[in-house]
Amino acid sequence: MVFGTTNENENSDTPPSCTHTRPANSVQGAPDGSPYAPDGSVPLGGYAALAGLYATATGLAALTLRRTGRPLPAGVPPWDLLVLGTATYKISRLVTKGKITSFLRAPFTRRQEATGGSEVADEPRRQGTLGQATGELLACPFCASTWAATSLMCGYVAAPHATRLVAAGLSAVVISDWLQYAWSFTQQQVDN
Fold first, then answer.
1. Which residues are within 8 A (CB) of 111 and not within 5 positions of it... i.e. 6 or more apart?
2. What's the CA dihedral at 89, 91, 96, 98 to 10 degrees?
3. What is the pLDDT, as a whole number, of residue 25?
4. What's the start-to-end Cα distance of the chain, in Å?
């Protein structure tokens, strides 16, 4: 999607920030000097910085867990995986789409539209390579879910009972959300 135009995917759950079609700084991607993206829209330097931050934070968490003597679980039971996956979904939606968390995204994104319920669609601000990449991360639930899942898994190793409790609470909110939508749909069907 190019902003200011429309396409058939405009109402999809994939936010505009996941399409990477806005102009931004780019990094040359080939030995012949040609850009990675012809329109220069992919902030490769920003992505590299965020990937480095993610790897560093994950490495520090692993090192800290190792120094505390916490053993890694031999596996994750299916029920825990389901609850952790549902919590990951909710955290990523809350961070990237929640009205109440707009203040976290505001330095890097701008409101595109309210999408219903308590969610909004934001788009990255054009702030250069790192600013755009951060805006894309904070506006894309698919992108943010990796960070959320890693945080939950670190918590699962460090404090499994507390993490299960938090994950169960977030999973309960997801179930509640679905029930709210089901109730609204049922009401609309009855009213029509």
1. 102, 120, 121, 122
2. 110
3. 44
4. 34
